[in-house]
């Protein structure tokens, strides 16, 4: 799978952080189309794994494909995490010290590394 070229300019950040209470936060992703394309590719990979299981393919081959899917999802998660840190969290820190946003970010990172 080809990786997305990295811009040499400032890191991506969300364009708009809107929150109407904690249950309905919304963010416009700066590279939404690229993220959607990557997720659709991952969706196809998962379908491929399903086909491999249905076709009784060799266990190691299936496991390698599962590993590739996990890696691709980690890449998407890292991109979104970076956008969040450079946008929403940075904005919160500048506006009010960002203690709540930093605590939320750390909770997410802890869950991601499990």
TrEMBL record:
Gene3D superfamilies: Metal-sensitive repressor, helix protomer. Signal peptide: none annotated. It comes from Acetobacter malorum. This is Transcriptional regulator. GO terms for biological process: negative regulation of DNA-templated transcription. Belongs to the FrmR/RcnR family. One of its GO terms (molecular function) is metal ion binding. InterPro entries: Metal_Tscrpt_repr, Metal_Tscrpt_repr_sf. PANTHER family: COPPER-SENSING TRANSCRIPTIONAL REPRESSOR RICR, TRANSCRIPTIONAL REPRESSOR FRMR-RELATED.
């Amino acid at each position: 799978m080809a990786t997305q070229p990295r811009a040499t300019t400032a890191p991506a950040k969300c364009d708009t952080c809107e929150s109407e209470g904690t249950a309905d936060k919304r963010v416009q992703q700066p590279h939404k189309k690229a993220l959607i394309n990557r997720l659709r590719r991952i969706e196809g990979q998962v379908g491929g794994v399903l086909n491999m299981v249905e076709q009784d393919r060799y266990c190691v081959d299936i496991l390698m494909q599962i590993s590739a899917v996990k890696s691709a999802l980690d890449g998407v998660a890292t991109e979104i995490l970076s956008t969040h840190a450079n946008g929403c969290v940075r904005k919160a820190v500048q506006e009010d010290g960002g203690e709540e946003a930093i605590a939320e970010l750390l909770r997410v990172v802890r869950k991601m590394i499990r």
